[in-house]
Amino acid sequence: MNSVKNILLVGVGGQGTILASKILSEGLVEAGYDVKMSEIHGMSQRGGNVSTQIRFGEKVYSPIIGKGEADVIVAFEKMEALRWIGYLKEGGKMVVNDFEIPSAPIQQGKAKYPEGILEELSSKADVFVFKAADIAAQVGNMRTMNIVLFGALVKAMNLPGIEWEQVIKKNVKPEFAEINVKAFQAGYKL
């Protein structure tokens, strides 16, 4: 690979965005890529936004993705997809979880959750939308929604040949390894 690829993962605190990013980074390193990762937690412990920038290729000098540079954006929550769409490059892809987590102003009744987000995103980019929560529930554990999204990302980025299931097993507690592998497989099939 002679060019650097840029992946942006965005979500809300508690959704497992950081874990998915760490699994992705570790797998890419094991595959021989130079990888740089930057994470921003914000007020993630209080339901605030979380973003992770991952850049990989033969040689990467900075972990920062500028506006209009992301090859893929994975949004764990659809309002976060709308917030970050400006970072997607022309011809880039978005993997969007059709899932809503109301922000504090919405919960307090000071604002309303925006309508028409998926339609707006689809008018601006190549968007793959699915309900990762439903898929995770079918697999057997709602908390694996992040790994469902990770599986979809691996498919969207065409990143085969990496032992993703082994990397997942190394990064989750042993008692949750098999359910997370099933979640990855379900997301990859999307």
TrEMBL record:
Recorded GO MF terms: oxidoreductase activity, acting on the aldehyde or oxo group of donors
Oxidoreductase in keyword set: yes
InterPro entries: IorB_Oxidoreductase (IPR052198), Pyrv/ketoisovalerate_OxRed_cat (IPR019752), Pyrv_flavodox_OxRed_cen (IPR002869)
Domain Pyruvate/ketoisovalerate oxidoreductase catalytic: 13-188
Alphabetical list of SUPFAM superfamilies matching this protein: Pyruvate-ferredoxin oxidoreductase, PFOR, domain III
UniProt entry keywords in alphabetical sequence: Oxidoreductase, Pyruvate
Listed Gene3D superfamilies: Pyruvate-ferredoxin oxidoreductase, PFOR, domain III (3.40.920.10)
Record's protein name: Indolepyruvate oxidoreductase subunit beta
Protein source organism: Aminipila luticellarii
